[in-house]
Model the fold of this input.
Amino acid sequence: MTAHLDSGDQPRPDVPRIGAGEPVPQAAHAGAPTSYDQLDDHELLRMHVAGNPDSFGFLVKRHRDRMWAVAIRTLGEPEEAADALQEAFISAFRRADSFRGDAKVTTWLHRIVVNACLDRIRRRQVRAADPLPEDEDRAAELAGPIEQDPAEVRERRLDVLNALKQINEDQRAALVLVDMEGYSIEEAAAILDCAPGTVKSRCARGRAKLLPLLRHWQTTRESDVPEKSAAEAVGTE
Amino acid sequence: MTESGLPTSEHLEHLDTDTIADLIENLLPAPEAHRAREHVKACPECQQTYDALVELSEDLADEGRADIPMPADVAEHLDAVIVSESVLRASTVGVHSLAQIREEPRRHLPKLLGAAAGVVLIAAIGVGVVFATKDNAPEGAASTEQNTPPADAVTITTNNLGPQIQQWLEHTPSAIMHGSAAEQACARTFASGRPNPNVRLVQPAKIDGKRATIIGLQGGSSRDIQVFAVTGCSDPGGVASPFYDTTVTLRNR
Done:
């Protein structure tokens, strides 16, 4: 148990590495839980693979708000989003040893979450959609705890979530991936398992549907930004 | 937007939003794209729609960069699921979403009924954790596990401390108090300094090669046991010094 363990970037001597090729016989002696805060994502995941019982929980805590944002935007329903995230995190928990150390842990997690959401959409479509009842209180809660963000941030967040809910699921998934999460058309096509042209078309039609729902955004924006040259935009494409 | 169906000049008839959105994504065939582009340049209203669509993408990107705080109940439930997943890692575990269980009640019901009540509690919000039987668990850890601890020091690693303690306590309804009177007194002294002084387990052990004492305290609910591994209690007059802790959730409480 010597050299082959240390094939990559500066490993901490006491933290087992992922992909070491053999199970590390004893767990990282992770003493005080406070020290987890100082460990980066890779280290937490390595410790998890080595058998540490707590490190994965810390990883979840660190990234859950990001992943919640992805799930709730893609699925639109809090119950669905919670179920999808749970499936995603359990899947990540179990598949952690398949994580390739050269990627970012967040990218890997993100992808698992997106796929869990899309699985739910597909299952729902097969089941001929039994729409869940609208829950206003629950919807308001989605904007997050009142004390956490300024009112206009919460309001805007709710506007987007509500608008996204009103467009069709395929268009929504494409728009969330490309416009909101910043995936390229090709990456989104791979994730959604369709042609790049289909992603483009879903994005275009999704934007066209969202526009009237979110048009009031632009009026607030125009008051902030005095003048935006209208002619410029056409010339850019 | 005209509904007349009469052939009108491109310069008079506005483009619909879909067409402009397609134009932005380069989805229109070349001649149509050319006409549309010319129209947008000449028509302030369509130009405005064009700009608005471009801005919409930018706004969505801005909004997409922001996290959304997970509601507290969802976060709490997720934590509980991860903890039970972690505690049960040593044994073979199958997880099914409630949706699956709902869809396939016949297949899952017997397992569900067989699983402990605590598990069903965990399932209440969104997911059921269905446990396979311990007997066919392939992991090495499971095979060395005992349902009750020996009266003298048990050899164990921090790695399988949680699952092992879970098994002991699930098979023993009362508290497990092993070790010398002095060791138990030391554990009680340690417990009395904690917010949850109810001692459920004292067990002499050799953990990762060193002599230690495992102390289990009643957690926030009857299912949760807070487990500490301490050194010091095996020495006469010693003071407990914890070096590892974890929380175990009992499935049959």
